[in-house]
Design brief:
Elements: E1 8-10, E2 27-32, E3 35-36, H1 37-48, E4 52-53, H2 56-59, E5 63-64, E6 67-72, H3 73-81, E7 86-91, E8 94-99, H4 107-112, E9 122-124, E10 129-130, E11 137-138, E12 145-150, H5 151-156, H6 162-165, E13 173-176, E14 181-184, E15 196-200, E16 203-204, E17 227-234, H7 238-241, E18 248-254, E19 263-273, E20 278-291, E21 295-306, E22 311-312, E23 323-334, E24 340-353, E25 359-360, E26 367-368, E27 376-390, E28 394-412, H8 414-420, H9 424-430, H10 439-451, E29 455-474, E30 480-501, E31 515-539, E32 542-563, E33 575-594, E34 599-610, E35 613-614, E36 626-627, E37 630-642, E38 648-660, E39 663-667, E40 674-678, E41 682-696, E42 699-712, E43 737-750, E44 753-764, E45 767-768, E46 780-781, E47 784-795, E48 798-805, E49 813-818, E50 824-828, E51 833-841
Helix pairs in contact: 1-3, 9-10
Length: 842
């Protein structure tokens, strides 16, 4: 269940505080003994799955009465706060604990006071409730290196996609390609299935296998509109989240329908970029209570345009990479006043980008010389149903999801043609010769290649997946806690890979189509698993956890060539139909201890894995057609601490990863095909540090530091591929150092109106795009810092934010790749962008 907690909340003025009325709703059995009030409030929040925000300063020295019996969350909270001098204000489904109202001051005294309005005194939040363990837990007592970003913060900063959100998510690296973005955590970077699990609510989503057996190369991105929070879980999550979570998991949790009150909001944004164009967007959210406290519906809709910033100097076109995203999400929540609840949601999103957002080394920042244009089109449909039953001893959760991604991805193929126009092997293929071509034949072959130059790779694809999960979790405050579950996924995708000639003058596809080559690939993956975690409190403050996941998968790939491509080396009678399967275990062992009320530590050993697969690549040696699953072991030590009032927190994680049978992308000798192969072993050492400090000289500070040393532990040499490495080589695209920091201040301008100032900075360390310094593709990337500034105004009904991103207009080289025999492509950050966001609440 999605729960929202802000990083800090201003206390209500005394005359605005009011007790939340006791409403009819879901009732729970509570057995909470008399104890410090703060601990009792935390137990109530976990049991009722409702967030309770409070300052430790308000509860210090106070004790709660015992609470035994069946109550609604509202009634239970009122009983715990009885005679404490505290009350609550209801904020949607959240409870904010504040001092009880005082007696009203005499009118004469009030009239004599003419002091200017004072800023609200903020209160620290004792805890943030998360569901990373697939049950509710307090973030500072969850044994995972993790970051939580609230939807409120995303909205205030105008964050609409993962690229904009990444500076707020320490350790998350986005690798841009012509097809999309790859998500990388803890240096676990490689081709094949995703190494970082991407979840929208309860649904894991991934990209199509494509022609390169690399579904992880493009993560399906839904717009970050009406988001409750983001949870970034660093480190293998193989026990609870399964394959694809070797490096960690990224969970994007949308806001649920509010059962207590109607709500509406509309927003508009406008942006302008240096060296680029202008664009705008709009969002709308409507929450309707159909049956108070029992049934509600929430609808969010959006249309966002991003201005283009890349100029194609070859074709004489400006701002070629402009994009737009349109979508709608509908959710319905039913809580019939019993332990049962049902949440059903459906999302549709359509995306279009006019061209890839890369610039070339020969043209300079934000300029490209591509001969062919490579637009992207995609439609995502996602439907999900989550059923919950809350018992006195066990909670049951059943989730069923379905999603479909229809897309057409494209990339410039002209570099392959340039590299092959004088290739003797291509000439021999064209004339079906067993010996070298003569001068006349070579001239004819080169003329043919010139006649179809330029060209793009045009790949319509469709991916469909059905996912089911059933799990049970223990309830109560006893020494034993457990979670058991079963998981099933059936996924299939199809891609029609065409090499098509484009108009040399416009770079657009010619009609009727001129096909240089064509092949199709069909992939099917079926995987199932049973999993569980068992925790036992061996002492009042010490807990041991054991976890296991038994997985079983079957993967089948089929491919055939419809039109032979003599340039790259496909032939008309090529066909393959192969499968691979495997079963095994992912294990976890963890010990955690609470060292007093403000310090929590853990040590763990955990595993992760990814399925293997089949390369559908004509001419690839049989020994490389099938690649195995890869696995890793993670050894981790973590410490989470905060001061007594929660204003200062510091979290540290130290880890070592041992990666075996590592899957990685390799290229054939003519660079025409990319495939996945097992290249051996690697080890990764890392350190993650996060710290926050609230209300220091009126400012809130946050900072993070990530150190990653990822290296091969053996030579990776083969005569059938290029681009591999040697023992001691650093893993590509993984920077050794990344850091981010922010400072923010709020103040009251007038009664009912507050202001905000925020400064952000981030640094992406140096990395290389390939193994081995002697490799021609060993390109420098990273090594730049970015800064941002934002100003905001906020009242009860509306907000306005003005942000300047990439303040110094840096052309950072976020990732780099060589376009076969074409120029080097750099995917960087957008130039300086000014963005204005307005939002009105009703």
């Amino acid at each position: 269940m999605a729960l929202f907690c802000a990083a800090a909340v201003g206390a209500c003025p005394p005359d605005a505080a009011r007790a939340a009325p006791s409403r009819p709703g879901v009732a729970y059995r509570f057995d909470i003994p008399a104890q410090p009030l703060s601990q009792a409030l935390n137990q109530l929040a976990l049991r009722s799955d409702r967030e309770i925000l409070f300052s430790p300063a308000l509860t210090r020295g106070k004790r709660s009465p015992p609470l035994n019996g069946v109550f609604t969350a509202e009634a239970a909270l009122e009983r715990l706060l009885a005679n404490s001098g505290l009350t609550v204000r209801l904020e949607g489904r959240s409870f904010l604990v504040v001092p009880a109202p005082r007696e009203a001051a005499p009118e004469s005294a009030a009239a004599s006071s003419s002091s200017p309005p004072q800023p609200p005194q903020p209160t620290a939040i004792d805890s943030v409730v998360v569901t990373a363990l697939k049950r509710s837990s307090l973030v500072q007592q969850t044994p995972i290196s993790m970051t939580v970003v609230s939807g409120e913060q995303l909205s205030r900063l105008g964050v609409l996609d993962l690229e904009q959100a990444s500076p707020l998510l320490p350790g998350l690296k986005l690798i841009s390609t012509a097809f999309g973005r790859r998500l990388v955590l803890r240096g676990v970077y490689g081709a094949g299935e995703a190494t970082t699990g991407l979840y929208y609510d309860e649904t894991p989503m991934t990209g199509p296998v494509g022609t390169t057996a690399d579904p992880g190369v493009m993560a399906p991105e839904l717009a970050l509109v009406d988001v409750d929070r983001i949870e970034l879980l660093r480190g293998p999550q193989g026990t609870l989240y399964g394959s694809g979570a070797m490096g960690g998991a990224l969970r994007i949790l949308f806001r649920r329908p509010d059962l207590s009150e109607d709500f509406a909001a509309v927003g508009a944004s406008m942006s302008a970029t240096a060296h680029g164009g202008r664009a705008g967007g709009a969002t709308a959210v409507l929450n309707t209570v159909v049956v108070p406290e029992h049934f509600a519906v929430r609808v969010s809709a959006y249309e966002q345009h991003q201005p283009g910033v890349i100029d194609n100097v070859r074709l004489g076109l400006k701002d070629v990479d402009a994009s737009r995203v349109q979508g709608v999400r509908l959710a319905a929540l039913w809580e019939p006043g019993s332990p049962f609840s049902a949440l059903v949601s459906a999302t549709h999103q359509t995306s279009h980008r006019d061209d890839i957002s890369a610039w070339n080394d020969t043209a300079g920042p934000w300029r490209t010389v591509h001969a062919g244009r490579a637009p992207f089109d995609g439609d995502i449909d996602l439907a999900s149903a989550t059923l919950k039953w809350r018992g006195e001893a066990v909670d049951l959760t059943a989730v069923s999801s379905w999603y479909r991604w229809r897309l057409t991805r494209r990339s410039d193929y002209s570099g392959v043609l340039l590299g092959e126009r004088t290739n003797a092997a291509g000439c021999m293929r064209m004339f079906s010769l067993s010996q070298a071509c003569g001068e006349t034949q070579m001239s004819s072959y080169s003329a043919y290649v010139d006649s179809v130059y330029p060209a793009i790779l045009n790949q319509p694809a469709e991916l469909t997946a059905k996912i089911h999960e059933l799990r049970a979790s223990s309830v109560g405050e006893g020494p034993l806690k457990w979670t058991l579950g079963a998981y099933s996924e059936v996924r299939g995708d199809y891609i029609d890979s065409q090499v098509r000639h484009v108009d040399p003058k416009t770079g657009a596809l010619t009609e009727p189509p001129v096909l240089i080559g064509r092949r199709d690939i069909e992939n099917h993956l079926s995987q199932s698993a049973v999993f569980g975690e068992l925790s036992y409190a061996v002492a009042p403050e010490t807990e041991l956890t054991l976890g296991a996941r038994r997985f079983d998968y079957v993967k089948r790939d089929r491919g055939a060539v419809q039109i032979a491509n003599v340039v790259s080396g496909t032939w008309a009678d090529y066909a393959i139909d192969a499968r691979t399967e495997e079963r095994g275990w992912s294990l976890k062992a963890l010990a955690s201890r609470r060292f007093g009320p403000d310090v929590f530590g853990y040590v763990q050993v955990s595993q992760g894995f990814r399925p293997g697969g089949v390369n559908v690549v004509p001419g690839l040696p049989e020994t490389l057609a099938v690649y195995r699953s890869d696995r890793l072991n993670n050894y981790e030590l973590g410490l989470k601490a905060q001061n007594a009032d929660g204003r200062v927190t510091a979290n540290v994680a130290l880890y070592r990863v041992e990666w075996s049978d590592m899957q990685y992308a390799a290229q054939t000798q003519n660079r025409a095909f990319t495939y996945v192969t097992n290249i051996g072993a690697a080890r990764i050492h890392g350190l993650e540090v996060e710290a926050t400090a609230q209300r220091v000289w009126g400012w809130d500070f946050a900072g993070s530091l990530t150190l990653t040393d990822a290296r091969l532990t053996a030579d990776q040499i083969t005569n059938t591929a290029i681009g591999l490495g040697l023992e001691g080589d650093r893993l590509p695209v993984v920077p050794k150092l990344a850091a981010a920091a922010s400072m923010e201040r709020r103040w009251t301008i007038a009664e009912g109106l507050s202001g905000r100032l925020r400064l952000d900075g981030s640094y992406a360390g140096l990395a290389r795009s390939a193994f081995n310094a002697d490799n021609a593709d060993y390109l420098k990337m990273g090594g730049y810092a970015l800064f941002g500034l934002s100003l905001g105004l906020e009242s009860d009904a509306w907000t306005a934010d003005l942000a300047v991103e990439n303040l110094l207009d840096r052309a950072g080289r976020a990732s780099a790749a060589r376009n076969t025999s074409g120029p080097v492509e750099y995917f960087g950050v957008a130039p300086r962008t000014v963005r204005l966001t307005l939002e009105r609440h009703f």
